[in-house]
Amino acid sequence: MTRKPHVIIIGRPNVGKSTLFNRLVGKKLALVDDQPGVTRDRRLGDAVIAGLEFTIVDTAGWEDDDPETLPGRMRRQTEVSLEGADAALFVIDARAGLTPLDEEIARWLRSQTLPIVPVANKAEGKMGEAGVLEAWSLGFGEPVPLSAEHGEGVADLFRALWPIIGDTAEGPEAEADSETVDDQEIDGDEAESVDESDLGPLKLAIVGRPNAGKSTLINRLLGEDRLLTGPEAGITRDSIAVDWHWTDPASGTEREIRLIDTAGMRKKARVTEKLERLSVADARRAVDFAEVVVLLLDATKGLEHQDLKIADMVLQEGRALMVAINKWDIAENASSLFNGIRGALDEGLSQVRGLPLFAVSARTGKGLDTMLTAAFELRASWSKRVPTAALNRWFDDALEANPPPAPKGKRIKLRYITQSSTRPPRFVVFGTRLDMLPKSYERYLVNGIRRELGFDAVPVRVVLKSPKNPYKSG
After folding, report:
1. Does 61 count as an annotated binding residue?
2. 327 annotated ligand-binding residue
3. 3-state DSSP assignment of residue 125
4. Is 436 annotated as a binding residue?
5. Which of 51, 53, 164, 188 is most buried, most CB within 10 Å of its CB?
6. Tens of pLDDT along 270-318?
């Protein structure tokens, strides 16, 4: 498919860039707050205006700071985003009017070869009229008066963009949205697993506590400084998805991955600021969209209670989980550290004993290819369907090896089992007096499914169903 034209949103902090981004993609993807500097990493989205399709890129607010500071590194990310772009929307705040920083950005943009569309945001009502007139002085032609919050002026934006990208933009296409892939269903006994080509890109989210090295890890995989990093904890705020092609070293084939970086998750009691609460909520939503989640640990800190809480949250959401210990190149007593974390995971997450555990280094690249290979294998297990005949053969053997108990002399009869869905795998057991079946026996069935049927460390759901008694009053 032909590459869509890229349109960059640029401007100083708090002029409404992320609000405009959300308006154009039709979803609240970027975090928005009254305080400046919320956006720190580039975020890409698919935008459509009256059939004009393009990729819109939200960027961090441009600030005049030393290049080594966090705002300075954010500005460098914004500068890099213009490379290869087709147009830029230079956004100002019409109510505040032009500022010295707006004029500095304009001077820099005039040195670029990129077509610039001046956008006077927050132009609703009479309060924005003066700012729209001032925007003429930027030297980029007629400004587009806009209210990103209320959706006013989008038609004018279309008229400004069409002469620039209209010839290269794509028309509407009826394609499946990869963000909303539902559980894959396969009827009967036709197949045991879903072909990888049917699943699309592997949606791989990286989660963990602040400063575990999540953004650094993704930058290492991509081979570029795509995400903002640094010694400061909590740099990442938005969940950022990056599409990428990974070359499998074993087969030499290219495999598609959607990498999802997330904000660090601290203990709930320590999260007091509204913006951090929004960031953590955004990270949780990213887990919902992921297929496989990597919980990244810091080798210098080991496994903490908060890590187990994050892991449990991922498993409760039904995602396939793996654990990676980052900063392995500076780990002390590496062997005992690995074995200690292995034992703590098996004890703290007994419902999925044997989670895949890897030692990696985002700085050197150690172990990353092995981790990605395992991620694809884990997704295959997560998406697998067992034929009903094979499933019930296992079920009969499991009942014969360990028959269900007979509490108070009343026999519990388990009749048969079927797999109702995948991603995560769900199984329904039919029988009588199932309300009397002990939890320990349910665990026995779940552990058997995972161990004997090839579901490894995948979260497995088992539902018990008894036939309704037509003579029992409701």
Report:
1. yes
2. yes
3. coil
4. no
5. 164
6. 544 554 466 566 678 788 889 999 999 999 999 999 999 999 999 999 9
